[in-house]
Design brief:
Layout (H helix, E strand, L loop, with lengths): L1 E6 L13 E6 L7 E5 L8 E4 L2 E7 L6 E7 L5 E2 L5 E2 L6 E5 L17 E2 L6 H4 L3 E4 L1 E3 L3 E3 L3 E4 L7 E4 L5 E6 L3 E4 L3 E2 L4 E6 L2 E8 L6 E5 L4 E9 L6 E5 L4 E4 L2 E5 L4 E7 L2 E4 L3 E4 L6 E6 L6 E4 L4 E8 L3 E4 L3 E16 L2 E2 L2 E11 L2 E3 L10 E5 L2 E3 L7 E3 L4 E5 L2 E3 L7 E5 L3 E6 L2 E3 L5 E5 L5 E5 L2 E3 L5 E5 L3 E4 L2 E3 L3 E5 L4 E5 L2 E3 L3 E3 L4 E5 L8 E3 L4 E4 L16 E7 L8 E6 L12
Parallel strand pairs: 9-10, 9-11, 11-14, 12-15, 13-16, 14-17, 15-18, 16-19, 17-20, 19-21, 20-22, 21-23, 22-24, 22-25, 23-26, 24-27, 25-28, 26-29, 27-30, 29-31, 30-32, 31-33, 32-33, 33-34, 33-35, 34-36, 35-37, 36-38, 37-40, 38-41, 39-42, 40-43, 41-44, 42-45, 43-46, 44-47, 45-48, 46-49, 47-50, 48-51, ...
Antiparallel strand pairs: 1-5, 2-3, 2-6, 4-5, 6-7, 6-8, 56-57, 58-59
Length: about 575
C-alpha cells in the first residue's frame, strides 16, 4: 500500500476542497482507467486536502509507479488533473551482481552485500519487493518471485549478455514490473514470458538468433516507456497461444530477418504508442495462422508512418491511424482500415475493409474468395495494373467513394469477370482516356450499380455490359462513349441522367431506358470534385426508389490523396439522381 501526494493546482474553486472526491490513474494504460477511487476528506480517513494538495494514504497501486490524480465535485464533474509523478518506493530493495565473486555478507540486502549470481537469490526475501540487477550477467535468469526487477539501480546499471544461452530472462508463472531490462544476444529468446501479467518499462532485446521477445501461452505484457528490439534473426517480438501484448510506449525494431512483430494462433497485439520499424525482411507486422478466423489480431491505434503489413491464414490486422507503405493479404487474411492512408495494396487474397481512408490499389491482384468493402474513401487506381478485378468467389462493395482513375493503366477501372459486385453506389468515378469505368462480363454473378456519378472528362467511357443488368439513378457526364452492350445482353437504365455523354452502342444487345434525363445536372463545382446538387438541379427527386437509402449530404475529398470527410444522409422517396442527397 502506498501514500501519494498530488498538487491539484489549487483545488476546486466552487466546492470546498474537503468535499472533493478523487480518482487515481496510472501510466500502464496511459492514464485512461482509474485504478483507485477514494472519498473526500470529510468522509475518508485516508484522505486529507490542504490548499489544493491532496494526500491519499493506503492506496493499492499494484505495479504502477507513475500516477495522476483528479478531483470530482459534488455534481460529478471531474477536473483539476495533476501532472504525472512517480510514487516513492516504500518496499525493500535487494541486490544481485554477477556470479563468481563474493560481495560482503552475500545476503542481498545492499549493493555491497549483493547476492552473487541469480542462483543465489533468496526468492522468499525478494517476494513482493524490488531486485536490483547490477553489472553484466552471463547466465540465464529464471525468475521465481513476484515483484520488481530494476536494471537501472543508482549503484550500477545491469544487463544480461546471453551469448551462447538459449534464453536470457525467463518469466513463467510470476508477475513482474521490469525496469529497463537489457537482455541481448541469446540463441533462442532474449526475453521469454509465459503465464504472467507483467509490465516492461523501457528496455532492449537485441541480436537474438530467434526472437528478441517471446510471448508464450497466457502471457499478458504491457510495454511503457521506450523499448528496442533490433537485429534479431527472426523477429523483434512474437506472440503465441492466448498471449496479449499492449504497447503503450515507443517500440523500435529494425533489421530483423522476418518481422518486427510476428504473431500466430490466438495472440492479440494492441499498439497505442509510436513504433519505428524498418528493414524487416518479410513485413514490419506479420500476423498469421489464426486458430479461428480473427483469433490472431493486431490493432494499431497510433499514427505511425511507412509500415509494411502482412496478414494471412485467418489473422486480422486492424489499423485505425497512420500511413502505411504496403499492406498484403494472403490466404484468407483480414485487414480492416479506418482513417488511414495505404500507399499500396498487394497480394490480395482475403478480406480488405476500408473506411474513411485513402487507398492506392497499385499491385492489387485479387485471388479467389476475396471480400473488398470500401466506404467513404478515396480509391486511387493510378498505379499499374490500375483496376479492380472481381473474379470467381470475389465479393466487392464500394459505397460513397471517389475512384481516381485519371492515370489508370488497365482498359477498365472496375471489371466484374465472374464474381459478385454486390454494390457500387454513391461513387464518383474519374475515367482516363479510352477506358471504361465499369465492365460487366457475361460470367459475372450479380451487379448493383446505383446512384453513381461517372465523369469521363470528355475522353473516358461509361459502362460496358455483356450480361443482363439494371442500373438506376446514375449520372453520365462528359463521357466519350456512354454505354456499350455486347453478346445479346440487355441493359435496363431507370432514371439515369446523361449530359454530354457521347454515344451508346448496342452491338447486338438491347438498351431499355426508362425516365431518361439529358439536361445539365447542375453540380455545385464538379471541376473541384464537388458533385453536390444545386437547388435547381433536375436530379433532385427524379430518381427511382432503390434498396440503398444512405447517400452523401456533404463530402470533402481533398486533393484525392488524403482521407476524405463525408457526412451521410438517409434518402426518402422521391430519390435523387447521383451520389448526393439533397
Amino acid at each position: 500500500m502506498a501514500t501519494i501526494t498530488a498538487n491539484l493546482n489549487g483545488g476546486d474553486t466552487i466546492t470546498p476542497d474537503a468535499d472533493l472526491t478523487f480518482k487515481v490513474y496510472g501510466l500502464i494504460d496511459n492514464y485512461t482507467t482509474a485504478i483507485a477511487t477514494v472519498g473526500s476528506a470529510n468522509t475518508d480517513a485516508n484522505v486529507s486536502v490542504n490548499a489544493g494538495v491532496v494526500i491519499i494514504e493506503n492506496v493499492d497501486l499494484g505495479l504502477e509507479t507513475f500516477v495522476k490524480v483528479t478531483s470530482i465535485d459534488e455534481a460529478g464533474n471531474e477536473s483539476n488533473q495533476s501532472t504525472a509523478f512517480e510514487v516513492p518506493d516504500l518496499i525493500a530493495t535487494f541486490y544481485v551482481r554477477p556470479a563468481g565473486t563474493t560481495y560482503g555478507t552475500g545476503n542481498g540486502t545492499s549493493y555491497a552485500n549483493a547476492w552473487s549470481g541469480f542462483a543465489n537469490i533468496v526468492n522468499a526475501d525478494v517476494e513482493g519487493n524490488t531486485l536490483a540487477v547490477c553489472g553484466t550477467h552471463t547466465e540465464t535468469f529464471y525468475v521465481n518471485f513476484n515483484g520488481t526487477i530494476d536494471f537501472d539501480d543508482a549503484n550500477e546499471a545491469g544487463n544480461i549478455d546471453a551469448t551462447g544461452l538459449g534464453v536470457g530472462l525467463s518469466i513463467n508463472g510470476f508477475d513482474l514490473l521490469l525496469k529497463n531490462p537489457k537482455v541481448n544476444n541469446a540463441t533462442v529468446q532474449n526475453l521469454y514470458f509465459e503465464n504472467t501479467t507483467s509490465i516492461v518499462a523501457d528496455g532492449t532485446a537485441n541480436n537474438s538468433e530467434n526472437q528478441g521477445v517471446q510471448h508464450w501461452q497466457d502471457s499478458n505484457i504491457t510495454y511503457i516507456g521506450a523499448f528496442v528490439s533490433n537485429d534479431n534473426t527472426d523477429e523483434g517480438m512474437s506472440g503465441h497461444l492466448n498471449s496479449i501484448v499492449t504497447i503503450n510506449g515507443t517500440f523500435e525494431s529494425k533489421n530483423n530477418g522476418q518481422a518486427a512483430i510476428n504473431q500466430i494462433e490466438d495472440s492479440v497485439f494492441t499498439i497505442n504508442g509510436l513504433v519505428d520499424f524498418s528493414n524487416n525482411v518479410t513485413a514490419d507486422i506479420y500476423s498469421t495462422n489464426a486458430t479461428t478466423a480473427k483469433s490472431c489480431k493486431c490493432v494499431i491505434n497510433s499514427n505511425n508512418t511507412g509500415l509494411v503489413l502482412l496478414s494471412e491464414n485467418g489473422a486480422e490486422i486492424e489499423i485505425n491511424s497512420g500511413t502505411y507503405a504496403e499492406v498484403a493479404i494472403e490466404s484468407n487474411g483480414f485487414i480492416t482500415a479506418n482513417n488511414v492512408i495505404i500507399q499500396d495494396v498487394s497480394n490480395f487474397s482475403g478480406t480488405l475493409e476500408v473506411l474513411n481512408s485513402y487507398v492506392v490499389l497499385g499491385n492489387y491482384s485479387p485471388a479467389a474468395s476475396i471480400l473488398f468493402n470500401a466506404t467513404n474513401s478515396n480509391i486511387d487506381l493510378s498505379t499499374p495494373p490500375g483496376n479492380i478485378t472481381i473474379g470467381s468467389g470475389n465479393t466487392v462493395n464500394i459505397k460513397r467513394c471517389r475512384i481516381n482513375g485519371a492515370n489508370a493503366f488497365a482498359d477498365q477501372l472496375i471489371t466484374n469477370e465472374s464474381g459478385n459486385l454486390v454494390s457500387i453506389y454513391n461513387e464518383f468515378i474519374n475515367i482516363p482516356s479510352n477506358k471504361f469505368a465499369i465492365v460487366v462480363e457475361d460470367t459475372s454473378v450479380s451487379n448493383v450499380i446505383d446512384n453513381n456519378v461517372i465523369d469521363g472528362n470528355e475522353v473516358g467511357r461509361g459502362i460496358l455490359v455483356q450480361k443482363d443488368v439494371t442500373i438506376n439513378n446514375n449520372v453520365f457526364i462528359d463521357t466519350a462513349i456512354r454505354i456499350f452492350i455486347q453478346l445479346s445482353a440487355t441493359l435496363t437504365m431507370n432514371n439515369n441522367l446523361s449530359f454530354n455523354a457521347g454515344s451508346s452502342s448496342t452491338s447486338g444487345g438491347t438498351l431499355v431506358e426508362n425516365n431518361a434525363l439529358t439536361s445539365n445536372p447542375l453540380f455545385t463545382d464538379s471541376a473541384n470534385n464537388d458533385y453536390s446538387l444545386q437547388a435547381a438541379s433536375p436530379c433532385i427527386g427524379a430518381g427511382a426508389t432503390v434498396a440503398n437509402t444512405l447517400g452523401i449530404e456533404t463530402a470533402n475529398f481533398g486533393n484525392l490523396t488524403t482521407v476524405p470527410v463525408i457526412v451521410t444522409k438517409e434518402q426518402i422517396a422521391p430519390f435523387d439522381i447521383g451520389a448526393y442527397v439533397s
